[in-house]
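Design request, C-alpha cells follow.
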C-alpha cells in the first residue's frame, strides 16, 4: 500500500474558493447572454461534447446540456484571447474617489523619497492606503 500525499487544508480551501469564484463568473456570463447567444453556446457545447465523446469521453454517456454549457463557457473564459465574445472585454476601470486619490498620493510621497525604496515598497504603501489586498503569491 502506498501513502498518498496529504493536501494541506489551506490549499484545499484556496482551490475551493477559486472554483466557487469561477462558477459564479460562468453563471454571470450565461445570464448576460441573449436568448439567441445562449442557444448558440448550448448548441456549440452539445456538438463539442459529442465530438469530444468520440475520443476521451467515449462510452461514459452524455452528461446533459447543463454539464456541457458551463464547460464551454469556462473554457472560453480560460482562453479569453481566443473567445472574446464569451469572455467579454473585462471589467470597466473604476475611477478613484478624491479621498482615495489623496491617500494614494500621500502614500507615494511618504515612501518614494526614502533612500533605497523600490517600486514594490511604493506599490505596497499605495495598496495599504487604498485598503486593497495584493494578490497572493503562488
Amino acid at each position: 500500500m502506498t501513502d498518498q500525499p496529504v493536501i494541506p487544508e489551506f490549499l484545499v480551501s484556496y482551490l475551493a474558493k477559486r472554483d466557487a469564484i469561477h462558477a459564479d463568473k460562468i453563471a454571470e456570463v450565461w445570464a448576460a447572454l441573449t436568448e439567441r447567444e445562449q442557444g448558440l453556446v448550448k448548441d456549440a457545447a452539445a456538438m463539442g461534447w459529442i465530438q469530444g465523446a468520440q475520443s476521451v469521453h467515449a462510452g461514459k454517456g452524455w452528461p446533459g446540456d447543463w454539464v456541457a454549457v458551463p464547460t464551454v463557457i469556462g473554457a472560453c473564459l480560460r482562453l479569453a484571447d481566443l473567445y472574446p465574445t464569451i469572455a467579454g472585454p473585462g471589467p470597466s476601470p473604476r475611477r478613484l474617489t478624491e479621498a482615495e486619490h489623496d491617500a494614494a498620493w500621500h502614500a507615494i510621497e511618504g515612501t518614494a523619497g526614502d533612500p533605497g525604496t523600490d517600486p514594490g515598497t511604493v506599490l505596497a504603501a499605495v495598496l495599504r492606503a487604498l485598503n486593497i489586498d495584493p494578490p497572493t503569491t503562488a
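Comment from the thread starter after seeing the answer: thanks! The radius of gyration is 22 Å.
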